[in-house]
Amino acid sequence: MKKKISFLIIPAFIYADGLHSLLEFATSNNKIVASNVLTEQAKKSEVESSQSAYYPTIDAGAFYKRDDDATPFQAGDTYSAYAKVGVDIYDGGRKSNTIKQNKAVLKSSEYSSLAYKKSLQLQIVQDFYNIKSAKSTLDALQETDKQLFASLERIKKFFAVGSVTKDDVDRLKAAYSNNTYKISSMEYQLLSLKKLLGIKVGKKIDTLDNSSIKIPQDIQKELSDAILSLQANASSLTFTADSLNALYSPQLRLEDTYSVYDYGREVPHAPTLYNQNVVMLTLNMRLYDNGTISKQKESILIQKDALNKKIEQLEDEQNINVELSLLKIETVKAQIQSAKSSLTSSASAFETVSEKYEAGLVDYVTYLDALSIKTVAKAQYETALNNLQIAYASYYYNTNKNIKDFIK
């Protein structure tokens, strides 16, 4: 018999998900994380594309021209093919600034991805311990259910011999039914929390293992990844503005084109050019555009100023959130002490009331009150313990740490 019991229990432990394993799994299977990875790859391709702009370009082409009537100086049919090599000798820094801009955009994307991952970790931690709290509440309600059922069966026997009234039985039945209703509601809430956690993680959630988060010690705040992303984005706007300046600078380009020709329906005086090599050095410079480029640059710099204001706001919010996180930890610790004291007192009081109730010294109202207080106290204590873990995780998140690194 013992072997059968142990066989049934072992799989529950084998398939239980710990907090660390959930965070690891989410990193690889969350769809938004995967989307962010693809976005980063796209930004990397843009950087590589802008770097390739420094290389010479090679073009090839051909054409066929037909005139219905040939002239003394023009063949009726002309065939040509050409190859052209070109290189920008000087562009006023446009390409270099474009590369810097794309690199800054890539960095912004990387920080944005990190910000989401850390936010996702916090959400998973919150769901994990909220599920733990819901499970503790459900366990307390189920324990109450057993006690109410036993009391109901007992009072029915007293009613059968006329020791209690039907009103006493009905009231206890109502309490039992109400507790059953609470159990049903809590089961739905627990299932909903698991479903929501499963969406974030990327797999079905069944059983959760016990996990805890290290107590914060000597943690130094770092700028959040969301702020770093905006800073990189602001830098990209600076480089975009600088690249516009290049349009007012001289643009020097060298091209070498080699062409070959052939003719049909030639006439005696038609040209006999069969190949040609042309070297061309072009210089271009914008002298006037009614301020179009300067206005574009002004617009971009205003966008940068707007981002800087947002960065300042986020920095203030992060500082406040760190302070509030520390305060939350101390508050929850105090709540744990209060909840623990309440649980000890209510458990002792219920034990005393239960003995008196069975002896007929107190009525069912006193008994139900004591049972309800003990149930609530037990759920509050377990919830407070779980809230402390969430408070630790929130502090790590607000100091821009990787929560996964602080899980025991």
Polypeptide structure, described:
The protein has 408 residues and is an alpha+beta fold. It is built from 8 helices and 4 strands; from the N terminus they run αααββαααββαα. It has a 4-stranded antiparallel sheet with strand order 1-2-3-4, with no helix packed on it.
Number of strands: 4
Strand percentage, roughly?
A: 5-15%
- Helix percent reads 55-70%
Question: Mean pLDDT, as a whole number?
Answer: 89
Unreliable runs, pLDDT <50, ≥5 residues?
A: 1-14
Using the alpha-carbon principal axes, give the shape.
Answer: elongated
| End-to-end gap | 35 Å
Strand order of the largest sheet: 1-2-3-4
How does the SSE layout of this entry go?
Elements: H1 2-14, H2 19-29, H3 31-52, E1 57-66, E2 77-90, H4 94-160, H5 166-201, H6 225-245, E3 251-264, E4 275-284, H7 292-358, H8 364-398
Antiparallel strand pairs: 1-2, 2-3, 3-4
Helix pairs in contact: 2-4, 3-4, 4-5, 4-6, 4-8, 6-7, 7-8
Spell out the key features of this protein.
408 residues, alpha+beta, four-stranded antiparallel β-sheet, 8 helices, 4 strands, 12% strand, disordered N terminus
